[in-house]
């Protein structure tokens, strides 16, 4: 039996869609399949052939302009001139590994650690979020002496052997590690009659106790604080603290995966975890850190990292190279100089309010939630049952593509539109997005 993964296959092109393609798109998809193999996925039943980007906009090969409402890779905007210039200048001087002295990695480390709680005072660098989370799991195990890792039921933390074993969002074809345990996501939409903080802390404790019963020592809890893959679940600020307290009381560490909620995305704080008044033992980051240049990081409490770094040398050929550090430094500078955290808060709140007008208008819009420029738009068959409507979500995604709005879905049922534009997204773009959603829902008769 062929298994299909949630995160990769929900909004994807498949062979049965090929009949509706124009000749050029057909040629490219066939060439891609022949050269790249079967694991890769394309978005949409009619894949988009993109050739250029600027800010929050993208253009296809025919010159058609699109609004990007999904991309946190180019977090401060596609082809931001400050990043382009920084990379260009450094490429003309030097690019090499970290076994020589260079100011760039030190300057950036001081800059990024200035954004974290004082207790987080060490930095290491890689190229991808998967590598950062992989190393974080190794550090957690070295510090705690245990092996057990807890994640949420639809979590995605990477594609390495360690991280894919803790990424249930990759689907049933990807086995979880025997030391991984799952907790239900803190879905406040469906758990609105409970204290979410108490409930989530109890779920964490159940899995810690279950590990102990199975002879597995607990090492840590790895979570994206906005629970992106679980369906964008920000919850009330502060609810996560009780769960983190349980983790610490039971000898584990909290790893905050900030690849998606970090770097001013949530508006309320620079880091997603900061909404909850907690201090992680390890912070991991990736995509938005370099605005398209492959760079990632692990930021940690010195005493936690020492359990690993004092005995095990670590080397990553490209991690922390001068060009990547130049890109990362430029991103930080732009976030501060352009006031992107406050921009995300203000524009995100306005977008959320406009999207909630659609919730008032259409019964199928069950919930609209978010923090800053990170919003989940949940579609249901009816509001009483809150039953997920995946088919409607996928139809709507395709209609948005026709309206030149690019986004995708999230959650265990694939029924939640994940609205996560570059931070260059402006108030003037709200009408484009909300209007496209309105027209799509009206045409679907919902």
TrEMBL record:
Cited InterPro entries: Aminotrans_3, Aminotrans_3_PPA_site, PyrdxlP-dep_Trfase, PyrdxlP-dep_Trfase_major, PyrdxlP-dep_Trfase_small
Pfam families hit by this protein: Aminotran_3
Required cofactor(s): pyridoxal 5'-phosphate
MF terms (GO), sorted A to Z: pyridoxal phosphate binding; transaminase activity
Signal peptide (residue range): none
Entry annotated with the keyword Ion transport: no
Keywords annotated in UniProt: Aminotransferase, Pyridoxal phosphate, Transferase
SUPFAM superfamilies: PLP-dependent transferases (SSF53383)
Family of the protein in this entry: Belongs to the class-III pyridoxal-phosphate-dependent aminotransferase family.
Stated name of the protein: Aspartate aminotransferase family protein
């Amino acid at each position: 039996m062929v298994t299909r993964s949630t995160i990769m296959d929900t909004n994807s092109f498949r062979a049965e869609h090929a009949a509706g393609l124009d000749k050029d798109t057909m040629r490219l998809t066939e060439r891609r399949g022949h050269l790249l193999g079967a694991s890769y996925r394309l978005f949409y039943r009619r894949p988009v052939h993109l050739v250029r980007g600027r800010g929050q906009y993208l253009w296809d090969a025919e010159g058609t302009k699109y609004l990007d409402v999904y991309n946190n890779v180019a977090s401060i905007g596609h082809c931001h001139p400050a990043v382009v210039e920084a990379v260009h200048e450094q490429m003309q001087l030097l690019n090499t590994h970290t076994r020589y002295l260079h100011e760039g990695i030190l300057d950036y480390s001081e800059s990024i650690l200035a954004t974290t709680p004082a207790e987080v005072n060490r930095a290491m660098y890689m190229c991808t979020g998967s590598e950062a989370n992989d190393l974080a799991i190794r550090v957690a195990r070295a510090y705690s002496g245990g092996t057990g890792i807890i994640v949420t039921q639809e979590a995605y933390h990477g594609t390495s052997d360690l991280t894919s074993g803790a990424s249930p969002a990759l689907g049933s074809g990807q086995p979880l590690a025997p030391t991984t345990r799952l907790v239900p996501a803190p879905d406040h939409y469906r758990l609105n009659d409970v204290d979410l903080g108490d409930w989530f802390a109890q779920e964490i404790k159940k899995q810690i106790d279950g590990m102990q019963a199975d002879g597995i020592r607990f090492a840590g809890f790895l979570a994206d604080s906005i629970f992106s893959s679980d369906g964008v679940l920000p919850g009330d600020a502060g609810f996560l603290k009780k769960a983190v307290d349980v983790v610490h009381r039971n000898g584990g560490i909290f790893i905050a995966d900030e690849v998606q909620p970090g770097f001013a995305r949530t508006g309320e704080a620079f880091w997603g975890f900061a909404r909850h008044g907690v201090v992680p033992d390890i912070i991991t980051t990736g995509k938005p850190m370099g605005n398209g240049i492959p760079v990632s990081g692990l930021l940690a409490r010195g005493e936690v990292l020492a359990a690993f770094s004092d005995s095990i040398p670590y080397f990553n050929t490209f991690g922390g190279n001068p060009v990547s550090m130049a890109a990362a430094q430029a991103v930080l500078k732009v976030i501060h100089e352009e006031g992107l955290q406050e921009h995300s808060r203000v524009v995100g709140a306005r977008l959320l309010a406009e999207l909630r007008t659609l919730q008032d208008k259409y019964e199928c819009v069950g919930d609209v939630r978010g923090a800053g420029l990170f919003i989940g738009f949940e579609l249901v068959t009816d509001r009483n049952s809150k039953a997920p409507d995946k088919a409607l979500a996928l139809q709507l995604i395709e209609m948005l593509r026709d309206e030149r709005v690019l986004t995708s879905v999230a959650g265990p049922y694939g029924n939640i539109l994940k609205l996560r534009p570059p931070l260059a997204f402006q108030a003037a773009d709200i009408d484009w997005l909300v209007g496209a959603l309105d027209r799509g829902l009206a045409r679907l008769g919902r």
